Amino acid sequence: METNVAARMSREAVGIFHSPEALQSAIDELLSSGFHRAELSLLASEAAVVEKLGHVYTKVDVLADDPD
Hints:
The protein is mostly helical. Helix content is 49%, strand content 0%. It has helices at 2-8, 20-32, 46-53, 60-64. The mean pLDDT is 78.
C-alpha cells in the first residue's frame, strides 16, 4: 500500500525570482533534479514579468503564429 501512496504524490516547487538569471538557475536545477520542462510554469501578470524580467519571454499567441 505504501507504493500506491508514493505513486500518487506529486512534487511541487514555488519560488519568487528577482532576476532572469535567478529564474534560469532555478529552472536548470529543477530540470537536473528530474522535473520535466512541461511541468514548469511561470505564474505572474504580464506587467510583473515585464517589470521584473523585461521582455525575456515570448507570448504564446506570438509563438502560435510563428511557422517555425
